[in-house]
Write a structure and sequence with these properties.
291 residues; Arc Repressor Mutant, subunit A; alpha/beta; 2 domains; Rossmann fold; 13 helices
């Protein structure tokens, strides 16, 4: 499998994860070294990566070829190009605005692209990862925390609203720095952090993931297919496509994933979730809580 179009679909970290079952033990060491500090270990030379992974340079070259690259230089170039794309903002993405500028044509093209992105969620997220996230979020012995960035905070808030109706001990982490410090202090091995971090990744989101991981919390990352740097400490990674023919990345896929998670958690919790929702609605109907 060398340089086929399919070989280079998705981010390089995603390609590595898909290839894990086909790698030799030595190649697996290379893969784990790359994923642990992604993308930094791959930005040096093949010899440097080999030394860090305690393998030969030949193993590194074979590893890159199994991913579909001609060799390490091809892999290295692709990684640098991907890194540039990770920092891209609306101005950088103007050239992908390819839809018809007329009203009807634009509406049809954009909605079709959005529908395709949502349909692709089942391809970018392995079922085992989704099921593992569902089990974590359904574990009533765990405290669930949710955090987002400047633009993705509403996604964290939406999932917090859904989960609060289904189970206790759900908290949305404030954007305020001092309150975030309090959350980190409270974190333990019974904590779960769900972090939303998309392209132009936020240092503050990445750091809270690292700090809570050090305190033993389980980390679930919802990100785009280029992968947030926070995936280096994640237990579960849920990547979605955000590319559409627009200079603005879409959050439609993020919303769709949030709704899928909420439904899966409800089914996992069964009667406990149903009874909590009934109690929630009964209180709201008494006028004590304004929806």
């Amino acid at each position: 499998m060398v340089n086929s179009p399919e070989a280079h679909s998705g981010s390089i970290s995603e390609q590595i994860r898909r290839a894990m079952n086909d790698l030799s033990p030595a190649e697996l060491r290379v893969a784990r070294k790359l994923l642990a500090g992604y993308p930094a270990p791959g930005l040096g030379s093949a010899a440097e990566l080999a030394s860090e992974a305690s393998v030969s340079s030949a193993t590194v070259i074979r590893f890159t070829q199994k991913l579909g690259f001609r060799g390490f230089p091809d892999f290295h170039s692709a990684l640098r190009e991907e890194l540039s794309g990770r920092r891209a903002g609306p101005i950088d993405l103007l050239d992908r605005t390819t839809v018809d500028s007329s009203g009807a044509g634009m509406l049809g093209a954009l909605t079709a692209a959005l529908a395709e992105s949502v349909a692709g969620i089942s391809e970018t997220i392995p079922p085992a990862e989704f099921d593992a996230a569902t089990r974590l979020l359904s574990d009533s012995t765990r405290k669930i925390y949710l955090v987002g960035g400047r633009a993705s905070h509403p996604l964290a808030e939406l999932l917090a609203i859904y989960l609060s109706r289904l189970r206790p001990d759900v908290s949305l982490i404030s954007r305020d720095t001092s309150r975030r410090l309090g959350t980190i202090v409270e974190a333990s091995r019974r904590s779960v952090l769900v972090a939303f971090d998309f392209r132009r990744y936020e240092i503050s989101t990445v750091e809270i993931c690292k700090l809570m991981a050090k305190r033993g919390a389980k980390i679930v990352i919802v990100t785009d297919v280029l992968m947030s740097p926070a995936t280096s400490v994640a237990n579960i990674v849920l990547p979605v496509q955000v590319d559409v023919p627009s200079p603005f990345d879409t959050f439609i896929t993020g919303v769709a994933l949030v709704e899928c998670l909420a439904l899966a958690v409800m089914r996992e919790l069964g009667d406990d979730a149903i009874n909590r929702m009934r109690e929630w609605d009964a209180i709201a109907d008494q006028g004590l809580v304004k929806e």
